[in-house]
Amino acid sequence: MSSSADSFPGADKFGPGARNEYVRRLGELLVGRGGGRFYAEGPDDSWGDSDHRATKAFQLAQGWAGTEADGYPGKDTWEYLTRHRGNDIPPA
Prior knowledge:
It contains 3 helices and no strands. By secondary structure, the chain is mainly α. The longest helix has 15 residues, at 21-35.
C-alpha cells in the first residue's frame, strides 16, 4: 500500500553527502526486499556505500542495466520499492 509519504522525493535527496529521512526510508525498504546483507548496522539518515550497493542490487534484480542500474534511486526504483513491485534482491 502506498501513501503520499511514499511519493518519490526527488533524486537530489540521494547520493554522496545526502543526509535525510528519505535515505533511511530507502534503506528500510531495501532491507525489506532482501538487501539486509549490505548494511552492517542497519540503515540510517546518511547516504553511504551500503545504500548505493543495495540500490544497485535491487535494480539489477529487476533486470535493469546501464543508467537504470546505477545504484541511485530514481522514480521507478522508488515506486517498485514503495509499492512492493518487481523482484526482491536475491541471496548472495
